[in-house]
Amino acid sequence: MGAMSARPNTEAAAQQAENNAPHRAGFACFVGRPNAGKSTLTNALVGQKVAITSNRPQTTRHTVRGIVHRDDAQLILVDTPGLHKPRTLLGERLNDVVRTTWAEVDVIGFCLPADQKLGPGDKFIVKELAGIKKTPKIAIITKTDLVESKVLAEQLLAVAALADELGFEWAEIVPVSAVEEEREGGRGSSDKGGDKRGAGQVGLLADLIAPLLPESPPLYPEGDLTDEPEMVMVAELIREAALEGVRDELPHSIAVVVEEMLPREDRPADKPLLDIHANVYIERPSQKGIIIGPKGKRLKDVGTKSRKHIEALLGTPVFLDLHVKVAKDWQRDPKQLRKLGF
CA 116 to CA 138: how far, in whole Å? Predict the structure, then answer.
């Protein structure tokens, strides 16, 4: 009997030791040139679509936080716009947002796409990072699914050498591909015969970031995935859908403001409907036709597409009412910027 009871005791001791490991919680942000894969990575880690992803550089406007819940840690991801050389007042404000964020987080992940050589833009960012002394910095090579292993190895060496040159050391250098994760429905469940690389790599990234966070109880309740106000998230989803079809014509000329979100009255409790009224703002009257499309088809598509994502986000059926309005040269006008939430 004595011999048999020894094993559960050992397990209990191991369990005890594990329970005594301090819980960690803190903030991390991904930085990198516009379009370096930061938002896709945030979504893959959180397992739900929270940050706007688009193949257009400069589409993340708000600091969207995604929250990764683990038994041992809670990682709050702050998604900043890409740092770039500003051409407009909006650009300058976006860069200020980036630097302010860097000063407030516990870990910074520098994202560099595997398929693009280290360019002046990357060096500009890493040089800025070198100036932030106390914060641990991780180099993340994204989009690894796009290159051969030889190219990837060269990229890993190049990013290590750059830090060396600037007199600091990366806490970690990690290659990831978040794209397989996205293909599998965003939850990282690669059990449908897909490529399992992405899920493993993104999980590993969370494993490496967690120990770098300060000891702390969870900062957000278990079910929360983001602390962005719902109206802002809804506006981002509409904006993403609006950007999708207008390839090169209006990358930055679109802003979306949700005017109101109200539950429809007189609906039975088991059949709720949420009415959402939103305005899509562009800079010039000539752009109106591009957004609305022939016979209103484009705007209708935008509504259909974004409504699906909004319903998934809010967990309720939605009636979406979209209007296109002109806010003349809003990117250069401080008053308009304020009105549109920047």
Answer: 18
